[in-house]
Amino acid sequence: MSRFLSHALPILTVVALIVGLWYLAAIALNAPWARDQATRAGVDLSASELVADTWSQDKPKLPAPHQIATEIWETTAEKKITSKRSLVYHGWITLSATLLGFVFGAGFGILLAIGIVYNRAMDMSVMPWVIASQAIPILAIAPMIIVVLNAVGLSGLIPKAIISMYLSFFPVVVGMVKGLRSPDAMLIDQMRTYSASPAQTFWKLRFPSSVPYLFTSLKVAVAASLVGAIVGELPTGAVAGLGARLLAGSYYGQTIQIWSALISAAALAACLVGIVGLVERVVNKRMGFAR
Amino acid sequence: MNGLIILAALLFWLAAWAVNVRLSKNPDKPGRRIIVPVLFGIAIIVLWEGLVRGLEVKAVLLPPPSAIVVALGDKAGTLWIDFVQTFIKGALTGYAIGCGAAFLTAILIDRSPFLQRGLLPVGNFVAALPIIGMAPILVMWFGFDWQSKAAVVVVMCFFPMLVNTVQGLQQADPMSRDLMRTYGASYWQTLFKLRLPAAGPFIFNGLKICTTLALIGAIVAEFFGSPIKGMGFRISTEVGRLSLDMVWATIVVSALAGTAFYGVVTLLEKAATFWHPSQRR
User: Fold this and answer.
1) pTM
2) A87-287 in CATH: which number?
3) Which CATH superfamily is domain B72-279 in?
4) Is B244's CB within 8 Å of A266's CB?
5) Tag placement on chain B: N or C end, fewer CB within 10 Å?
6) For residue B101, what are the CA distances in angstroms to A287, B154, B278?
């Protein structure tokens, strides 16, 4: 119980605070429209009616949390999964691109990191560019990649996955290089005194000690990968996916739709990061990193 | 003829790689750490130019670097207007407001351990979310001009900066705090003389993360609606017109702006936290 009080209670308080502020902000932002409507209809709104109205408009400036919750419930549980209005359908499209991009990005990232650690020329030539590329707004390239790949006949899943791959690639390279270099000189010398081959040094020393670093960057990478998939859905003109829901919502002023897509994207991101974190915990425990 | 161009480009790349392999055998000689990556970059550009010209790749797929340089020169005026709109007005304003607000919030929260324990996990959670999705909403609220882009940047920068600053403020070790107490230092004296300097590396880490986020936020927000200037607007419209040389030119500008921004913050960090082990050589 005391554990609950010291950990969950502060978090719950903060979340409750945010939700409370949200309701207040909804009143403040939606009130002008409600008042405007009331004066046009020639009705006087009492304070409680005004509040009730601001929390139940069709196209509010800021929908109240319960409106978003209802919309999410209606578009996930009450629609068929194959329906184009189902958030599960759109979420799956985004998720598949995210996962494909994440797997390839992480794979290439690990390979490049191994190359960088074992080849000094590669380290000196490529690593500065990898670090510099962290400061570049890579997402800006997304529309171009989509259009160019469309021109060569690739559309749908692959272009989005490529953007996701691109975004998840860099954190993995940087984290993995750090990880593979983390065993100190003593340990490497020790492997040498055992006359271990480079492959043995890699599998028995470098790779295991890089695992905690790998998971830290995988968590960043999977979140970045989702952002990549969402942004990748924008330039194709709102066909399908959570990004498309965002864009379509902003075209038609459907704020509740935007927010529900946004919240589902957030939940998806939280799940993905949570799953990676769970795997991390299990692996670290098996490998003896856990304290 | 085309085969010759490809061959020449490949040969140049191989030669540059061979030189790099030789140069990197003695990495500690002066200048090597700069020459090697620069040579690698030049080799990539030559290879790109050679392959595009040799294989006659259409300019709508991938323009050669020379065409991008030409576009950079010809359209310098437009690019500058875009740069001012997106970077100076959108990204920098948002960056200053977002990081400033997060910093002040962190100092306020710092007085309540209860709020801290609640806000750190929530902040970490929010920092991992696809906040860029807020862009269409903020564009709706603040209009098409740079104000909405600045707002997106504010939202994107706030939580990473907040989490880093709160963590940083916890860095001063208990011994030093006790020492301040024995000096009879007030809360504010402890804050300014001990805890803020100790938080320096964390604060700058947050500031550095936010430089990239700021540019990304400002550019992507323009995909959801903008006046007829701005780097995000330029990229999305020129992609539609298939003038990819202009798109690449804009990307070059944004890359340069991003690197310079990051570089400036790194320099400030070096000047402000020179005492920290990570800055020592």
Assistant:
1) 0.80
2) 1.10.3720.10
3) MetI-like (1.10.3720.10)
4) no
5) C
6) 42, 9, 27
